[in-house]
Design goal:
- This protein has about 70 residues and is mainly beta.
- Helices cover about 0% and strands about 30% of the residues.
- It has a two-stranded parallel ribbon with strand order 1-3. A two-stranded parallel ribbon has the order 2-4.
- Strand 5 and strand 6 form a beta hairpin.
Amino acid sequence: YIKTINSNAFGMANNLISVTMSNSVEKFETHPFYRCSKLTDIIISDDNQFYKFENGVIFTKDGKQF
């Protein structure tokens, strides 16, 4: 299982348009989607205890913007 999405993990993936994260993701490091200019959708499992995606923004479950 993937627990951490590292800094620049998807960096400069210019054709990436969607990412789906499982409930195992516990931590996003800074700028994991750096220069992913076509990325329009991030799907985070409703079962994820740490993060949610709303209105184009990643939030922690307690509502703090990532």
